[in-house]
Write a structure and sequence with these properties.
By secondary structure, this protein is α/β, with parallel strands linked by helices. It has helices at 40-46, 94-97, 139-142, 148-159, 174-185, 197-205, 214-217, 221-228, 244-252, 274-278, 292-303, 320-329, and strands at residues 2-6, 14-17, 27-37, 56-57, 62-69, 81-84, 87-88, 109-110, 122-126, 130-132, 166-170, 189-194, 210-213, 234-239, 254-262, 283-286, 311-316, 335-339. The radius of gyration is 20 Å and the shape is globular. The structure holds zinc ion (ZN) (2 copies). One zinc ion (ZN) binds at residues 89-90, 92-93, 95-96, 101, 104, 106.
């Protein structure tokens, strides 16, 4: 089968022919029908994210149809439409027992990171990682739920978001669109910050109460957020960009007891004098990935029409390079989805 694979930091991905994987006991094989292209792939490409495992098939957002059921798996699942959850925890550590397998230190698999992911025709995963996809959600619309919407739910949970709080979503892309919608559903007043007018217009369409263009505001984006919030500032800032400039602004716009939640990262380090945190009792925290329960919640929100994913365009798997080019240039308004 065809697969787009990572070969190490700084090496270009390559489209290759690899053996078809076979479902073992307790596993299913999914014929992938849609795979979302996440910004994380750029971090693999540049070497910023180097997990030391190569070669590995890229892609951690995938939807498809079960076409093989391993020993012990209910054969009636053959033909089932599913969304794949990309972590497979050990099931025994304190994090797994709490349902937080995104923090498991003995992961059995993390698809698209350490294990072969969704930029391929087939993937084999434990049966529990293949979550039934409601019939009213297309494969294309489903793929960006896996990382985009689910990560947004995880970050909102982690931030302890309360009704009526001011949330700044700093960075408008797929996770940002998810955060705008999920935070609004939880009663937050949402300010989206970005640089691209088209993405900010979409942010407003998806429910942002206010938008701020960081290019217009320059270094005063924090002042602009204070102005938009009657001087209060942000109870929660979700940092999806994390450059030196945005991190300074994100810190400066925090309200008293505000929480800065890192989700994205760049080559830049976070530097802040503690006094800026101390005087406001500010909290700096971070959010990584998501849990299976959160993916089920994300899927239900999309199926009920409460949250929508935004697909910019689809590409055949063979044209993945065009998708990477668009990711690098930041030209896509929503997800680019590969169709293997
Ligand atoms: Zn992702
Ligand atoms: Zn574990």
């Amino acid at each position: 089968m065809k697969a787009v694979r990572y070969h190490g930091p700084g090496e270009p991905f390559r489209l290759e022919t690899v053996p078809e994987p076979q479902a073992g006991p307790g596993e299913v094989r999914v014929r992938i029908r849609a795979a979302g292209m996440c910004h994380t792939e750029l971090h693999f490409e540049s070497g910023l994210l180097n997990l030391g495992t190569a070669p590995v098939t890229m892609g951690h957002e995938m939807a498809g149809v079960i076409n093989q059921a391993g020993e012990g798996v209910d054969p009636s699942r053959l033909g089932e439409r599913v969304l794949v959850y990309y972590y497979a925890g050990c099931g025994e550590c304190e994090w797994c027992l709490r349902g937080e397998e995104n923090l498991c230190g003995s992961l059995k698999a993390e698809y698209g990171f350490f294990n072969d992911g969704g930029y391929a025709e087939l993937i084999v995963v434990p049966a529990r990682n293949a979550v039934p996809l409601p019939s009213n959600v297309s494969f294309e619309a489903a793929a960006p739920i896996g990382c985009g919407v689910t990560t947004a739910i995880h970050a909102c949970n982690l931030a302890g978001l309360a009704d009526g709080e001011v949330v700044v979503v700093y960075g408008v892309g797929t996770v940002g669109y998810g955060l705008i919608q999920v935070a609004r559903l939880r009663g937050a007043r949402v300010v989206a910050v970005g640089r691209t007018p088209g993405k900010l217009a979409l942010a407003r369409e998806l429910g942002a109460h206010e938008v701020a263009n960081a290019s217009d505001e320059g270094k005063d984006v924090a002042a602009r957020v204070r102005e938009l919030t009657g001087g209060r500032g942000a109870d929660v800032v979700f940092e999806l960009v994390a450059t030196r400039e945005t991190m300074a602004a994100s810190t400066a716009m925090l309200a008293k007891q505000g929480r800065l939640v890192f989700i994205g990262y760049s080559p830049d380090s976070y530097t802040v004098h503690p006094i800026h945190l101390v005087i406001n009792e500010a909290v700096v925290t971070a959010s990584v990935g998501n849990t299976l329960g959160e993916m089920e919640e994300a899927l239900a929100l999309v199926a009920e029409g409460k949250v929508r994913t935004v697909v910019d365009h689809t590409l055949p798997l063979e044209e993945w390079e065009k998708g990477m080019e668009a990711l690098r240039e930041g030209t896509a308004l929503g997800r680019i989805v590969l169709i293997p």
